[in-house]
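pinned: reference chain
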Amino acid sequence: MQKLHQLVIQQMSPGSLPDDEASLTACFEQVQEERELMTRRLLDATHLNNNREDRQALVRQHQASLTRLLDSLYYYISVHRSTTGRSTQDGPDHKMACYRKVEESLQDVMIGLEQHFSEYMELDAHLPFSYTTLARKQLGMRLREVDWLADAPGLEPALAELIFRPVRALIDNRGARVTFRMLFYCRNLLSQLVQLTTLDVGPAGLFDLQMHGILLKMNFNSPAYYCYCTERIRIRLKQYPKLPERIACLSRFIREVNRIPRENPELALDTTQPHICMQLLNWLEEEKQYLQELHAASREARILTNVTLPQLTLLVRLFIDEGIIANTSTEQVLRSVASVMAVNQPDAAAGDNFEARYHHPALATIQSCKATVARLAARLREYETSRHAYAD
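pinned: its structure tokens
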């Protein structure tokens, strides 16, 4: 490794690299020999050593060394390009060709590290500059394989835009440094999407479900995706007019999210944010608790009555006709009574039920209410008698 550093960093600097083709060829061959020795030592050491910590230390040492070598070459190439001012008419640029061959050779070693030892690499380390350019080209090619998903009939455009946003940001933002973690994540995401495009997932609803399954399993924990999911859940809840139905819907969502496997705790789009499943579970639990408290409060606030729904409706009509309840719209009165009165028939006090019985009371209901009114008159006479007795 030391000899390779000496060859690249010292002997290949713009002021030290010879200009004749034969010397450049010899320099490249020396680099190749040292590169092959380094690769062989790495493979032998990792195969013979079963200790994970030792393997990780060795792989990360090679990763850091390759990054330094590639970044040095990137700087040398930039200096050479800016100082020579050569054009295609001046003939072949042997120095530049040598730089490029050495750069490609070292990039091949980095690719080998990725393919065989990615689990031991330092994921939060930055990619070498030239390697970032290579990675962007590869991601761009893979992205074109799944570009059709943006217009897929089973996928909302807003969701498609969210999915591709981090990959496009990595490709398009050429001034930003990229970590190995982000590169691996975007590659894995695109691989999952490519597999999805080859599956016959059936109806559009199932396709959308498969897509969410990939994003949740891969911990696509961007704030935008969290907001997207919670907003879609709110839309689903609005389909249920009653609080118990909404609470049951939230319980189903909680069960489904809990079933999603979380195999790799380090897998995340954003390592600074909690797992997307945990974010959604917290929101679902809080929303469920809020609705449960709201439902309990609404039940406690309602006045219980032993009369039946038809009897209550007829009594309300009597109060309106007699002016005891101020003259207002019948619909408003019925809606208000339905919201505060709980009759002895569960879920019966609905506006439609009130409306039907208000205008067309049954004969048995009228007779029952007459008995109720007679008891009320008797009760009033009893109150009157007691007041007279108290006055005497």
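why pinned: The chain is about 70% helix and 0% strand. The first strand starts at residue 303 and ends at 304.
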